[in-house]
Design a protein that fits this description.
The complex is a heterodimer of chains A (about 350) and B (about 350). By secondary structure, chain A is an alpha/beta fold. Chain A has 18 helices and 13 strands. The chains are: A alpha/beta (about 350), B mainly alpha (about 350).
Chain lengths: ~350, ~350
């Protein structure tokens, strides 16, 4: 069973969403609905499942419904139709009391603009989740101090949030989410408001924490590099529709449509693709005629950009090996060039437009 | 279904409208009306000037309603009267009984601690307080009376206004219902409730307190409502996401963050109370206002101005104390950035 399952969720904003729902279900587009009824479609038949312990990144441009989607999981927003299952429980079936218990113990959230309480000190902010659970001051300060230490903010615990820099504030947000020790973490564009260097620091910190804690994370982002870096799976939203779900490699190698293709166009493929993804199996390699006598040995988990310079310098066949040195496959120049060219879809659309002109 | 409901609503509204017109026609005096109602549809001369029979009879029911209120609920108003008057006299007598230097010292102490130990504000307030008596020794006791009325009026405003403001911020329906009432309270000429106040509560301080409440509570309610709604949505969401219930969100997040705005409301409330207490002197409320009135009645411009200055001084004292208290709270809820990091 998946940790989180979203089944056919629709969300329509407006004064009578249930009336507009059939139109959306019949496949009317967002623009049509807005023009005809004045309602905004937030989510349009979104279904996805997130496995325990994985980081699922939900990506899309602004207005694509990412933030709406994440708020359905802890029911800050109620869906117009559909089901949200967390550990098998339908979130919509919870009454007010159970919902509060559910939010206290099942999941925590990190916000884009941090959502810190400006009138509370760092330690009070971090302990807030425990405070609403009714824990005693000493206990919650003890836990809060641990988490403050985990995110590297020791010494700042008695400062107020606006005395800290943006990156530090988001660390407080992260520590606050960790403090309740929930299995699920929802991160709504958590690093989008930070400058690039601090952002990559925070990403690294999250990866390290995740390696240790193995939480189920739903991460919202509009930045492809971030998604590829963090995500075990990526879902791409466009106008409230989920257009593609897959591993980072899936998304880059086989974009489902033009929208996704446009997204992945500028990615540095060499930094994302691992050797084992594009290698030929030994059988296939043998059937090929052209062979280069030079060979380089490369670990199966290394990225292309780690051995690409070498291949450029002295043309060679790449032998892909696993940790114990067994040969798993081969990479020739052909595979390399194929992997590094932009996707087929991209080339196709370009040639189409040329014909049109 | 929804459309049908809207039509029904419109139908009910128009039915009420027609009903009101028929009532006004029936209750009009016979000599104002045509002999038979069918004449209206034959002779259209009534379209030129507003016909006398088209007159909504609001005055009589209001009068009889008011009488009914006095007869049946006299005890209720009497008890409010006793309560407020008791509070007023106790407070007034105890302060008037004190030697004046002690009163000044008390004001200074209150200012000093309310402003978070700001010397400048404290010195200013001390001088203003001294000048109240210094302007004319008669003013001292009268100012104390005025202050007592204002303080009790404000307490009433705070006790009722802030909860109402919170209710308004949390519920759209409550807000829709209350906004026109607040508009009414703010625009209705003050004599419209000062005079009935006398009938219900008698002459003196109590109708002034009631008038202060009517006049000064709307800005407090509005600013409380605004303050709570202006609290950053993401912060409220954060509190909900961590499983805070409504009470925890309200007391732990919304009210503390709305406090600067609420304090602004209290400040506005004070200023308006002072304005009203002067007008209330016209219905026989004792205080510094009646000096202004006396000066005007005797065409004694100097006297009226002198009393006017005393009122301004009172206003400054109240303003400084509430304002600096608000600033102190603001510093606590939204601390300034530290430079040395």
């Amino acid at each position: 069973m998946s940790k989180i399952e979203i089944k056919n969720v629709y969300k329509i904003f407006g004064h009578s969403p249930s009336k507009v729902l059939p139109m959306v279900q019949d496949g009317a587009t967002k623009e049509e609905i807005l023009e005809k009824t004045g309602h905004t479609v937030g989510l349009d038949n979104v279904s996805l499942s997130i496995e325990e312990g994985e980081t699922f990144v939900c990506m899309g441009l602004s207005g694509s419904g990412k933030s709406t989607l994440i708020r359905h999981i802890n029911r800050l927003i109620d869906p117009t139709a559909g089901e949200v299952l967390v550990e098998g429980t339908n979130v919509m079936d919870l009454d007010q009391k159970k919902l509060i218990e559910f939010r206290r113990h099942k999941m925590s959230m990190v916000f884009q603009r941090f959502g810190l309480f400006p009138h509370k000190t760092v330690i009070e902010n971090v302990g807030y989740g425990l405070e609403v659970q009714g824990q005693k001051l000493e206990e919650r300060n003890k836990v809060a101090m641990e988490k403050i230490e985990a995110v590297g903010l020791t010494g700042f615990e008695h400062q107020y949030p606006n005395q800290l820099s943006g990156g530090m504030q988001q660390r407080v947000g992260l520590a606050r989410a960790l403090a309740t020790n929930t299995d699920i973490m929802l991160m709504d564009e958590a690093f989008s408001a930070l400058d690039p260097i601090i952002r990559s620091d925070m990403q690294k910190q999250l990866i390290d924490l995740q390696a240790e804690l193995k939480k189920t994370i739903l991460f919202i982002s509009h930045d492809l590099d971030e998604s590829l870096k963090l995500g075990d799976h990526i879902g791409i939203l466009n106008h409230g529709r989920l257009v593609q779900v897959g591993t980072p490699i899936d998304i880059i190698m086989n974009p489902a449509d033009d929208y996704v293709a446009a997204f992945v166009k500028d990615v540095n493929r060499a930094k994302v693709i691992k050797a084992k993804i594009i290698m030929l199996t030994p059988e296939k390699f043998k059937s090929q005629k052209e062979k280069n006598s030079n060979t380089i040995k490369v670990n199966e988990d290394s990225f292309l950009d780690e051995f690409l310079p070498q291949v450029c310098l002295t043309p060679a066949t790449v032998e892909v090996v696993d940790k114990s040195g067994n040969i798993k496959g081969y990479i020739t120049e052909k595979e390399l060039s194929k992997a590094l060219t932009k996707s087929k879809a991209d080339i196709l659309t370009k040639s189409k437009t040329n014909v049109g002109q | 279904m929804k459309k049908y409901k809207t039509y029904l609503k419109y139908f009910i509204y128009s039915a009420i409208f027609v009903f009101v017109i028929i009532i006004s026609y029936r209750s009009a005096r016979p000599r104002y009306k045509p002999e038979h109602y069918t004449d209206i549809f034959k002779d259209f001369s009534w379209l030129n000037d507003w016909p006398k029979w088209l007159d909504f009879p609001l005055m009589q029911p209001l009068n009889s309603g008011f009488d009914w209120l006095i007869v049946n609920y006299g005890l209720f108003f009497e008890s409010i009267n006793y309560f407020l008057l008791g509070m007023y006299t106790t407070m007034k007598n105890s302060i008037v009984g004190l030697p004046w230097p002690i009163v000044i010292a008390l004001v200074v102490l209150i200012t000093y601690f309310a402003s978070g130990r700001k010397t400048q504000t404290t010195v200013l307030v001390a001088f203003c307080t001294f000048f109240l008596g210094f302007l004319s020794p008669r003013y001292w006791d009268k100012c104390i009376m005025t202050v007592c009325i204002v303080v009790i009026g404000m307490l009433l405003c705070i006790v009722i206004g802030i909860p109402v403001g919170i209710a308004m911020a949390r519920n759209q329906k409550v807000r829709n219902a209350l906004l026109p009432i607040l508009d009414l309270m703010q625009t209705i000429p003050s004599f419209c409730y000062l005079i009935p106040g006398i009938l219900l509560f008698g002459l003196g301080a109590v109708p002034a307190i009631i008038a202060i409440f009517v006049y000064a509570v709307p800005p407090l309610i509005r600013l409380t409502d605004l303050g709570i709604r202006l609290v950053d949505k993401e912060v409220v969401e954060a509190s909900e996401a961590f499983g805070a219930n409504k009470k925890q969100t309200l007391w732990g997040v919304q009210i503390p963050l709305a406090l600067p705005n609420i304090m602004q409301g209290v400040n506005q409330c004070t200023m308006m109370s002072l304005a009203m207490v002067v007008i209330a002197s016209m219905i026989g409320t004792r205080g510094i206002g009646d000096e202004v009135l006396l000066g005007l009645q005797q065409l004694n411009v100097g006297m009226a101005t002198e009393a006017g200055i005393a009122i301004v001084l009172l206003a400054i004292i109240f303003d400084r104390i509430t304002q600096s208290y608000g600033e102190k709270i603001q510093e606590r809820t939204q601390p300034k950035k530290k430079v040395d990091l």
